[in-house]
From TrEMBL:
Superkingdom in the source lineage: Bacteria
Organism: Paenibacillus arenosi
Protein name: DUF2399 domain-containing protein
Residue ranges occupied by any Conserved hypothetical protein CHP02679 N terminus domain in the UniProt entry: 35-282
Residue ranges of every copy of the DUF2399 domain listed in the record: 295-458
Amino acid sequence: METKTRKSAKHYYSDPMLNGLLEAAFKKYRGQNGVRGKINIEVVSSDEALRLQEFFGSRLERLIRPGSIIELPMKVFAEEIAKGYNLDLPELYELLHGAPLVTNAERRQLQEQAWHTVFEHASSLFEKRMGFSVSNPILESKTFNWLQRLYDGKASGYRIVQYAMRTNANSVEMLFYCLKALWYLYVETDHMLAELSVNAPYVQLPIFAQFITEGDPHAFDMGFPSGRLLWQALDDIYTQELKNGQRIGNDHLLVHDFMKRRFIYQVAGITADEISSFVHVFIPNEHYGTAARTLNLSELHDNSNWFKPANLYVFENPSVFMFLVYETIHFLEASGVTLEQIPDNFPILVCISGQARDAAKYFIVKCIETNPNCTIFYSGDFDLPGIQIKMNLELLGDIHVMRMDAATYKEHIHSRSRPLTKQDVKTLGSMQGDLPKEMSENRKKVYQEAITKELREDWIQVIKKVLGACSK
């Protein structure tokens, strides 16, 4: 499968030439109750043959022609989509079709007594605590009968209930709290806002969770099944509203994938934490001065006056980022360059502090939208998370690496370098590219702090070139 494309997974896999492959894989998954066995695809046209040849790449040694029969282990296909977009087969199906991929065994399980009991008890608990039946016509109408569709396996979220049942979590209470949340979001909104003394258009997620559970402000965090179930319900209801024409507009089409969760919350009247998601930037000019700044998602969101940015140099670790910040300030002062003399195309230093948070992604995307010619350079640790961050950023646009290559890695491996875990070695070995292969063979980590000398040399050359071009 080609890895250079930066299309969204939905756009990429919506290619009609991949329909035969996908339908065969989904059918096999249903029948085999998981990623088992092999799929056989008969290639119909020359266009399909060419597209599948591009998709499989080196996985297939022979040339694909119209009339060819391709045999492929399901495990191989699952690995390909996991590497490309970090999706598993059920997630890809739901992304494309807006409904869960239900295996034959799972369909039978939906009819089992345990499943029925969970919904029956949750409905009884709702009636006991709320004072009326969950089969309320208003709630059913507002949520498009989400509870019944969930029971039938036709609404998003049923896998979360299954997971809660398998892990002995309190699936009854989880389902009850979700139903109670939907009641106050879609039916008694004014009563809830009055109880909370909320006059703004949105209620904070932890405050809402505290109100619903009467004791746990973190109940609807995405780290818990109850939080994931609520979000799935809200997303499902929003999708139904679009299908039924109850929502008009294409705002959902303008939302980037990584911002979808926050968008769905906002549509339902909830706002998630936007100040804990942050990014560090260094933009030396008259507006920002010569200090690194920390920008949170809230202020980035509210900024309607985006400047036209220059190239971005993204670093994983704060220590390396600040090292380059101080070196930049020293170089500018030693060179006699004042803030007024710094050109608009002076490159920007960005630090993601070990993970690509939504704020960092949002900042990068807005920079690219404001200046399509903006180039992104990335440097991170030589370990699995460092490689995965690069892959995560590649979903936003073309990424160029800065000293993050096999040669640099080999040069800095030391006898005291920390070892990679067996699982990390296995994962790296399944990835494409010289660097992951080299890392899987040497089984060592090299941290970004080990290459600060090289990074400084490259960075100073970059800013010298920019300043030199402006002085001509």
